[in-house]
Amino acid sequence: MDEPAGLRERKKERTRNLIAQEALRLFRAQGFDEVSVVEVAAAAEVSKATLFRYFPTKEDLVLHRFADHLGEAARVVRERPADLTPTAALRDHFLAGLAARDPITGLNDHPEVLSFQDLVYRTPSLHIGMRQRYTSQDIDALTDALPAGSGGAPPIVRRLAAAHLIAVQQELGQENWRTITSGRTADEAYDDAVAAAEGAYGQLMSGLDAV
Question: DSSP letters of the chain?
Answer without folding.
Answer: -PPPHHHHHHHHHHHHHHHHHHHHHHHHHH-GGGS-HHHHHHHHT--HHHHHHH-SSTTHHHHGGGGGGTTHHHHHHHTS-TTS-HHHHHHHHHHHHHHHT-GGGT----HHHHHHHHHHHH-HHHHHHHIIIIIHHHHHHHHHHS--TTTT--HHHHHHHHHHHHHHHHHHHHHHHHHHHTT--HHHHHHHHHHHHHHHHHHHHHHHTT-
